[in-house]
Every structure is written in C-alpha cells, then in structure tokens.
UniProtKB/TrEMBL annotation, chain A:
InterPro entries: FAD/NAD-bd_sf, GMC_OxRdtase_N, GMC_OxRtase_C. Keywords: FAD, Flavoprotein, Oxidoreductase. Residues 443-564 form the Glucose-methanol-choline oxidoreductase C-terminal domain. It holds the Pfam family GMC_oxred_N. Residues 232-342 form the Glucose-methanol-choline oxidoreductase N-terminal domain. Belongs to the GMC oxidoreductase family. This is GMC family oxidoreductase.
TrEMBL record, chain B:
InterPro entries: Cyt_c-like_dom, Cyt_c-like_dom_sf, Cyt_C_IC, Cytochrome_c-type_DH, Membr-bd_ADH_cyt_c. It comes from the Bacteria. Its main location: membrane. It is found in: Cell membrane. The lineage of its organism: Bacteria, Pseudomonadati, Pseudomonadota, Alphaproteobacteria, Hyphomicrobiales. This is Alcohol dehydrogenase. Residues 31-134, 176-284, 298-388 form the Cytochrome c domain. Residues 1-25 form the signal peptide. The keyword Hydrolase does not apply. SUPFAM superfamilies: Cytochrome c. Its cofactor is heme c. Pfam families: Cytochrom_C.
Length: 586, 409
C-alpha cells in the first residue's frame, strides 16, 4: 500500500532539461513544485570535474553516464514478424539518467526546426501531392512563428553561439539563409573554426551552397545568462557528447538553471525515486498524482494538481501506457495513439583523409562545425525525388577520442598490424562530413508493451518496432551523394563513404534522437496531446519532450524540445492556471 | 534617497522607541527589527552561531582555535538553551563587556573586543531582531579546552591585558564615510578576527592590524589596500564588488570568506561597502617585501608541464584566468601571499566560489590530492608563484606533505 504524501501543486516526472525549465517557470508563478528523478543528484564539481570528466572508459564504454538498463530497458525488433528481444546494452541511442538527464551528456548542437517542418503534412501535400501509403506524417499544431519567442529564450538561457541567417525576415550574410526568422542574433559568436571547417566552407561555397557555423551550446566565450548563471569558455577538449562538461562550458540544466532553482523555497527535488504510474481518479479524466517507489521498495502516492511527464521520450511513452492513459496504438487496426509515429534519425557520412595536413580532431567540441542546410526539410525542390524531408550536412570536429574513434581508409583491415598502422597514420589527418537526416512517420514503426519481458518492478517493458522506411532510405541515398560531393572537394587524399542502409541496427551508435509515441496534433483523433502538450484525455496531465514530435526533422531535437517546453509553460501560466481544464476544445 | 536604511531606521527608532534601553522590554516595530536584521548581517552572527544547514542562530558550531574547540551557543530566544531569559541589559553586557548572564567571562572567540565598539541602540536592535526568529532548542556542547583555559576566571587576566571596552570614537580628521568604514571593519565586521595575526594568547597583534593571519589551516591575506598594502592594486570598486558579488576581476571568494560574503556583506548596502573600501584603501602596508628567490629551473619546467595539463583549461595558459569565472593567477593576492598555505590547500582540496545573489553559480575547482604527488604540487605551486610577474618564490614538497597531513584531522 502506497503511503500518501502531502500534496503539491505540480509534480514533474524526471529532472532533465524540460523539468528544469518548467520548474523554473512554475516556481516563478508561485506554485509549489516537486520533481521526482529516478537517478542520482549530479553536479559539475562532484560528478564530472575536469579531473574525471574525460574518462572514456568509465562514462561511455562502461555506460556510467546513461540509464541503468539492468533495471529497465526496452525490447527491439525491426518488424512485426520478428520477436523483440531486450536491449541489454545501449548502442544506437544513449538515454540519460540522473539530474540533468541527457542534457548532461549531449553535444550541444542547438537547432530550430524549419517553419515547414511544423506543417510537414500540409506543406508537402500542397507542394507535391498526397503522401505515400503508410506514411503517417502530420502537422504539429503549433507554428514556428508561435514558438519563436520560446526558441529565443532557450538560446539566451544557454548562450548559444552562432551566426543568424535571418533576423526579422532579413537574410544575414554568413548565417543559415533557410532558417525561420529570428527576433535577434545569437547571444554568442560562433565557435573558433579549425582547418577542417575551413575546407568544408570552401568546398560548399564552390558547390554554390551556403555554409554557416553550427549553433553551439558549447561556449565560444564566457557567458552569464539572464538568470545570472555563468558558463565558462570552451577549452575544446572534445569530451561533450557522452560526457558531462567539467569546465562549465556546455549548457545543461546544471550550468544554466539549477544554481537559481535549487535555492527556491517552493521547489523540491526527490532523487532515487522512480515513478511507476500516473494515478487517475475514477472517471479516468483527472490525474490525482503519481505513485513512486524509493530504492528500498517503499511505495508512495504523491498527490498533485498538475502532473507533467518530463522523462525521456521512451519513458514518457512507457508511463502513459502503464498508466492506462489513452489507447495503445495497434498497427493492425490503426486504432490507438499512444506509441504511434515512433521516429528516429537517418545518419550517413564520409570520412576525408589528408596526406600531409593535420586536422587534429581531438581538439574539438560537440558543436564545433560548419554546416549547410541547402538539403534540409523543403529547402530544395523534391519534384521527382520520391521522398520528402532532408537533413543538414555538417563537418563537426568532435568525438575523436582514443578508444572510440579511429577512422581508416577504404579497404583497411579491421584488425591487426595493418589496422594499427592505418590508425596511426590517419588519426591526426582525417575529418568527417555527415548528413543528419530526418525520419518520417510510418504506420509500421511504433512503440507498444512487450508481451514477455518485464522490468525490475514487474512492469512490461516497452517494445520498439522500427526499421528505416522507403522515404528514409531514398532521402539518405540522396543526402549521402551530396555529402560525397562536398567531401571530395575538401582537398583530401581520399574519402570513405559510410552509407546508411537498412535494416536499422540498434547497436552501432547513431543518435539519441528518439521521437514520437506521445505525438501532438490538432485534435484527439490524431494525437495524444494538444498544441500546448496537454493530454486530450486527462487535461491536468502534460507531456514534454521529443515524444510529441509527430515525425522527426533533419536536426538535433533539443532546441525544439526546449522551445515547446517554454511554450507549454507559458500556456500553463497564462491560460491553464486561470481556468484549469482543456485549453483546446475537442 | 540619500539616507541609508540604517539612518532611516535610526530615526524611526528614536521617534517611536525612546525606551529601547529599558532592561527587558522588547521593541518589535518593523523598523527596529529591520535595523537589527541589518546589524546582524554586518556582524555575521549567523556564520558562527549556525551549523551549516541547520536552524539559523541555533549555535553548536565548533570554532577551532589554537587552544582547542569552542562551541557557539544557541542565540535564538528559546527559554532554556537560548537567550529566552536574557534581558536587554544582559545582552548588552555580553556584547559590550564580554560578560555572560551568569557573570562569567566570555571567551574572545566571541568577538566582543570588536562588538564593544557598537552603540547601545544598535545592540538593542540586534536583541529585538533575534527575538523574532524561530526559537530552537539546542544545548551547547561543552568546549574542548585544556586546563587551565577551561577555567573562565583565567579570562579575567586576558581581558585585563587585551580587552578595552568602549564604543567607536569618530576620528574628526576623517570623512563620515571613512568613519563608517572604520566602524564596520573594526566593530561589527570584526575583520581582524581572521585578517590580523594573533599573539601567543590568541589576541590581535594590534600593530599588525589587518595584515593577514592564519587560522584553521587557511591563510587569511592582508587586506590593507593603501600604499604597499597587499590589496594596493584593488580599487574601491574592486573591494565593493568583491564584498557584494563574491568575485571581482582579481579573485573569487571561497572558504571562510565565502561564508562572510554569503551571510553578511552581500546583504549590506553599497554605501556601507563603499565605506569599508574607503577605510581599507587608507590602510597602508608596511614597506616593500623582500624579493623571494626564484625556484630551481628544473622545478619550474616540471611545474609548467603540470600546469598545462591540469590547470590551464580554466586558468588559461598565461595565468590570466577568466575574471569572475575562474580566478586569475597572475598578480593574485592569494598566489603572491608569502604564506603558501591557501594556494597549496586549494590544489589539495579544491575550492568552491561562493554563490551570491549576483553570481548564483558556485563555480568550483576540483581536488587534486588524489591525482598529484607532494612533489608535483610543490612544482606547480612554485611555477605559479614565479610566473607571469608573480614573485612569491618556491615551496617545498615537505610543505605540501605537512599540510596534507594536517588536513587529515
């Protein structure tokens, strides 16, 4: 029997980026806010100081930075004809755990989705005709223009470095000419570029493309954000993705919000407690709070007026299923919405090898790079291409860590002395050009509950059924050709293409950009949450995170996740609290 | 708006609380309580009278002195373990004369040699403020002092030799701001508690006032900011910024000073902080320091390599740091202090910049005690102390080893 605790105004499930933003906003509103996090408290000087942060073996290879998948994981299969098996070791994606969530170990590539990305279904239908059979792409229900002020807040919270390409409708030289209109320039200048980016910039200009600096949450200079929190300048140590930053140089909840939030008397955080389910009243239309369990197995009922799911996309979707909120999607009938439109990201790349030029990629940063956006979204004419969407193409100098990264030319042996020789010759003289491809929703890619496997609490694991779609593969083939054209012009001795062919393999690392499952949309028949991320079924329940993306764009998701969070917080503060109830009438 | 809250409060008290010195009477007007709150901040009463993280002013914190540990009493108004039975006169006797309610002499770890400079009205305001805060029951632990120091009568001789009761007397040759600063520094602020060296009896060496001291294995630097003073290159603005924000272009506060800023100076008015700066800028140092010997070249070479691997990411390769983020080492008072205790200790234990209202981020340096040997720390400290214009000289591995050992306790 769960022990009932004193009620709070708001309970946040999980304590990463979205929870930190909401906690800051809703405590400003005077609400009593409690965040429940299943992992540990983590802060820079204790958990990832510069003396410990760049420990490749510990954080990445032994997976100490990520969610504990011996307690809870998911099962995976490529299609409905297979039997899904548990992912016992993270591979393709790396969900976080503990305070700060994956916001501790992200790279810091901070994008805004294109205006057309938010209206992907209507925009593409209008321009190219009906979507193909089985594709379940839809509009977000919110527009870029509505989100712009919220993107802007996140940029300033984090001290994003970059060069605007469009300020109030005016195209700016040196920025991304395809991006949506910004209300202001980036708060920080771009990162310091290296030899590789100069080659990429020259090559893309020769091809008539529009290179610009990648938007970076690694600090290009010391920065104090609007809350007074301080971020130090990046030292280009190259330990961003998969690591916490020891130098306070990467925007994270720890560096941008927690110093202020944690001192507020109306905010409380409970760590090492896992939420088992959202508790509903008899009508099933109102959340009364959550049930959570501590590490000793004691269960608690935490009553709250407002329940907000702020865990990672996978776990938010899982919690909705376990709480019996909405109907779980069934691809056989097309009925149900929870778990629908699971999407990912389709990555491919080319390595460039130089004969006598040092790229020194070990001196890098998660978001140190030059990009082109000419082949993203609908920035180019797709007529006759038989796919929609695209991706940005970039040359990032990051991740060249000694255990993880040893690019070798085409035809090199995979082991032995020939391999060692090639690694030695090429480690300091290679770079990479990558395409960050979108992922379009199809009826056969989805999440549901596994019929066999359970987690440490006896709850069914979530099952992922996913493979690259026809749209993905055609798009990736097209993007990889563009990557090849650029790579070939970067002045190297040779290149090596790393194409992305099916089937999807859940082991090699690709990106931690899992989306969908609790998708947003215009009405209860096509979505789990409305345009304010409010549950259609349970109006005092909100769901944050990339789970609300109806499909994934050709960008890293954090910027858009954060903008949607600020947007939802604004709606809660200015509409919901005045008149609690559905903010969109079904 | 030329009046400080202090002056406004004082006026109000005079008009509405003429009987403020009438023994037991409590004055709980808003203005009086606020005056007391501010006075408590200027004296940092909370620092010593609170175990960090526990109920404010409930005492029990152990103060390490060269003679043993002295525990602070509960100064909430709880009747049995706190000040609940104390009258205003009792309180005045303690603050002004160092005498407890039972007539016993108080240990000067309670800085009454400084508090004695406070006027009666100010002390009464503190009493009235303390009366408003939540009352907490907490017994004071027994002091851990050897005989005969545990005999309070022994303090009579100490007081006779070193204690001079009396309110602050204005210096008519100086400005009102200077006088306010002198009052705050020498009175409630009791800066000398840490920043003045002590004689064998633990009393301030009056002729070396504010010229730096060592306590609890920290070296508190000289804070004389006039000609030849250790803070000569700090402007008035630098001093004000440091006391308000915990950081300035020269350094960041940590350890004991961090607590002083957190609980005391960041809550003071800019006008009072400016007064402190004016007074300190008028304190001259005592002449040129003799030049230290340059360390051995082999040591410097090793120290430089260690520095580049372990320190330069934040403190930068030329030692200029990132002012207000990561402390500059070039020209740093802490680095150039003749006594290397602080700089060695920071490397051994790490340090945490104080989070303040201005700078909420507690930017921290990690500990290197597990990573660097005594020889390596000595080399890097010697390198830092003799580079980029610093001329504080070498330290030895033995010095590091001794401090490492001392910190184990």
């Amino acid at each position: 029997m769960a022990r009932k605790l004193p009620p709070v105004d708001v309970v946040l499930v999980g304590f990463g980026w979205t929870a930190a933003i909401l906690a800051q906003e809703l405590t400003d509103e005077g609400l009593e806010v409690l965040a429940i996090e299943r992992g540990a408290w983590r802060d820079t000087p204790t958990d990832f100081p510069p003396t410990l942060a760049p420990d490749e073996l510990r954080w990445y290879w032994r997976k100490e930075m990520f969610a504990n998948n011996s307690r809870n994981t998911l099962t995976f299969r490529n299609n409905r004809g297979q039997v899904a098996l548990p992912m016992r070791r993270w591979g393709s994606f790396l969900p976080g755990e503990g305070v700060g969530g994956a916001g501790v170990h992200w790279n810091g590539q901070t994008w805004r989705f294109l205006p057309s990305d938010f209206v992907a279904a209507s925009h593409n239908t209008e321009r190219y005709g009906p979507l193909p059979d089985g594709m379940t792409v839809q509009d977000y229900g919110v527009t870029y223009d509505e989100l712009e002020p919220h993107f802007d807040r996140f940029d300033k919270l984090c001290g994003i470095g970059g060069k605007a390409g469009n300020i109030r409708g005016k195209i700016q030289a040196g920025g991304n000419p395809f991006e949506g209109s910004r209300s202001s320039e980036y708060p920080n200048p771009p990162m310091h570029m290296t030899f590789s980016q100069h080659q990429f910039e020259r090559a893309t200009r020769e091809l008539g493309l529009s290179p610009f600096p990648g938007p970076s949450a690694n600090m290009s200079q010391p920065y104090t954000n609007p809350l007074g929190c301080q971020l130090g300048p990046c030292s280009y140590c190259g330990f961003c993705e998969k690591y916490g930053c020891g130098n306070y140089s990467k925007a994270s909840p720890q560096t941008t919000i927690l110093p202020v939030l944690m001192t507020k008397p109306n905010f409380k955080l409970k760590t090492h407690n896992e939420v088992l389910r959202v508790k509903l009243d008899k009508s099933g239309r109102r959340a009364t709070g959550v049930i959570h369990v501590d590490t000793q197995g004691n269960e608690y009922e935490q009553p709250a007026e407002l329940v907000i799911l702020c865990a990672y996309q996978l776990w938010n979707t899982h919690l909705m299923m376990l709480s019996g909120i909405g109907e779980i999607y069934n691809p056989a009938t097309g009925e149900g919405l929870v778990g629908k439109n699971y999407c990912y990201q389709v990555m491919s790349s080319a390595d460039v090898f130089y004969e006598d030029k040092y790229t020194n990629e070990f001196a890098g940063a998660g978001a140190l790079g030059m990009c082109v956006d000419d082949f993203n979204g609908d920035n180019f004419d797709h007529t006759g291409l038989d796919f929609i969407g695209g991706g940005y193409i970039a040359n990032w100098t990051t991740n060249a860590r000694p255990i993880e990264t040893h690019p070798t030319p085409e035809g090199t042996a995979n082991w032995g002395s020939a391999w060692k020789k090639a690694v030695k010759e090429n480690f300091l003289k290679s770079t990479s050009v990558g395409a960050h491809g979108a992922s379009m929703a199809y009826a056969n890619n989805y999440l549901d509950l596994d019929p066999t496997y359970t987690d440490a609490y006896g709850r069914p694991l979530m099952r992922m059924t996913y493979d690259f779609t026809p749209n993905d593969l055609k798009m990736s083939a097209f993007l990889t050709e563009r990557v090849k054209e650029i790579a070939e012009r970067m002045g190297g001795r040779e290149i090596k293409l790393n194409t992305r062919d099916g089937p999807y393999d859940s082991m090699p690392y690709q990106t931690t950009h899992n989306t969908g499952g609790t998708i947003m949309g215009s009405n209860p028949s096509n979505s789990v949450v409305n345009r304010y991320l409010q549950s259609w079924d349970v109006p005092n329940l909100f769901v944050m995170g990339a789970g609300v993306f109806p499909q994934n764009a050709g960008y890293n998701p954090t910027g858009t996740v954060a903008a949607l969070t600020y947007w939802a917080a604004d709606a809660i503060r200015n509409q919901y609290l005045r008149s609690p109830g559905p903010m969109v009438q079904a | 708006m030329t009046k400080t809250p202090f002056a406004i409060a004082a006026t109000l008290v005079l008009t509405i609380a003429p009987a403020s010195s009438s023994g037991h009477a409590q004055e709980n007007s808003f203005a009086q309580v606020e005056r007391g709150r501010y006075a408590v901040a200027t004296g940092n009463c909370q620092g010593c009278h609170t175990i960090p993280g526990e109920a404010p002013f409930s005492g029990g914190r152990g103060l390490e002195t060269p003679f043993g540990t002295i525990y602070t009493p509960n100064i909430t108004f709880e009747a049995e373990t706190g000040l609940g039975e104390w009258s205003k006169d009792d309180f005045w006797q303690a603050m002004h004369n160092g005498v407890g309610r039972d007539g016993s002499h108080l240990y000067p770890a309670f800085p009454y040699p400084h508090f004695t400079k406070m006027p009666r009205a100010e002390v009464d305001a503190i009493y009235d403020y303390l009366a408003t805060i939540p009352r907490v029951r907490r017994e004071k632990p027994e002091n851990d002092l050897p005989f005969p120091l545990n005999q309070r009568m022994a303090l009579l001789g100490w007081k006779w030799m070193f204690f001079e009761p009396g309110e602050y007397q204005e210096n008519p040759d100086k400005s009102p701001e200077w006088n306010r600063g002198a009052y705050l520094v020498e009175g409630p602020g009791h800066c000398a508690g840490c920043h003045t060296p002590k004689n064998l009896a633990g009393a301030d060496k009056k002729d070396q006032n504010l010229q730096g001291g060592v306590l609890e294995n920290w070296s508190a630097p000289s804070i004389r900011a006039g000609r030849n003073g250790a803070l000569a290159d700090w402007s008035e603005d630098d001093i004000v910024e440091f006391l308000r924000a915990g950081r300035n272009r020269h350094t960041a506060a940590f350890s004991t000073m961090a607590e002083v800023i957190e609980l005391s100076t960041q809550h003071m008015t800019d006008r009072d902080l400016r007064a402190i700066a004016i007074y300190l800028k008028d304190r001259e140092g005592d002449g040129e320091r003799k030049e230290a010997d340059a360390p051995d070249e082999v040591v410097v070479t090793a120290g430089e390599a260690i520095y580049f691997d372990n320190c330069s990411a934040c403190h930068t390769s030329d030692g200029s740091g990132i002012p207000r983020f990561f402390a500059p080492l070039a020209g740093s008072g802490k680095v150039n202090n003749e006594d290397a205790t602080t700089v060695i200790r920071v490397i051994l234990e790490g340090a945490r910049s104080v989070p303040t209202k201005t700078h909420p981020s507690p930017l921290s340096m990690p500990a290197f005690d597990w990573k660097l040997t005594d020889e390596q720390i000595a080399a890097v400290v010697s390198y830092i102390r003799s580079s980029w214009g610093n001329q504080a000289g070498a330290v030895t591995a033995d010095q590091v080893a001794d401090l490492r050992e001392a910190l184990k306790d």
